[in-house]
Amino acid sequence: MAIRLPPMQALRAFDAAAREKSLTRAAESLNLTHGAISHQLKSLEDDLGVRLVERAGRGIRLTDEGERFAQRVRAVLADLSAAVQEAAERSNPRLLRVSVTPSFAARWLLPRMARFAAAHPSVDLDVRANSLLVDFQRDDADCAVRYGLGTWPGVASEHLLDEVYLPVCSPRLSGGRLPKRPADLSRHPLLRSNDEYWEPWFAAAGLGWPEPDRGPIFNDSAHMLQAAIEGHGIALARSSLLGDDVRNGLLVRLFDVEVPSDRSYYFVYPPRVAGTPKIQMFGRWLHAEARAAVVTRKAKRPARKP
Question: Which CATH number describes the domain made up of 8-88?
Answer without folding.
Answer: 1.10.10.10
